[in-house]
Amino acid sequence: MGVCIKAGIARFLFIKAMDSIFKSEPEQKLIELCESTLHEHGYHIVDLDCMVTGNGLVRIFIDFCDLEHSRAVSHADCATVTRLLDPLIESSDLFCGKYNLEVSSPGLDRRLRKSSDFERFAGNHVKVRLVQKEETLGKEFTAELLGNRENDVLFKLPDREVCVPIAKIKRASLVMTGQPQLKRGSL
Hints:
Elements: E1 2-4, H1 25-40, E2 43-51, E3 56-64, H2 75-91, E4 99-104, H3 115-120, E5 125-134, E6 138-149, E7 152-156, E8 161-165, E9 169-175
Parallel strand pairs: 1-8, 3-4
Antiparallel strand pairs: 2-3, 5-6, 5-9, 6-7, 7-8
Helix pairs in contact: 1-2
């Protein structure tokens, strides 16, 4: 038996594209600011974290635009992206003072952000954190990813299948099991 969680519309109005997990307004602005520059150089944003208060922090996870790329993201790639994005972020009005920029490869516990990510990594196990606690799921759960349907992400729990609106997901990341189902070039 499947369960669907309804999405509240008012909480997610500032997110332009509903094909992505929930992102705060500063995070969404950073994605919009940086994505075209990265695409011009063959990279894309897998996910990012942003803290604008105190000593600001921007943590960006990158990968190659070409999904069949034959090598993983290297330290040199991260340094290149840092040099590309630092002046761009510095000239924006997102931070009132200092901030730290961290650029990283997606890693084995790769985060999933876009609906295409949830389709690409179907069959893998994922750890999911929701924006808010749901009565039938709690705030966090681990499940097999089945894919996506329109703006819903489908998961298989031990006792049932559930679908969650993508905008209700705060973070989702791969969980490595004994039998990884990833193709070369997937990380």
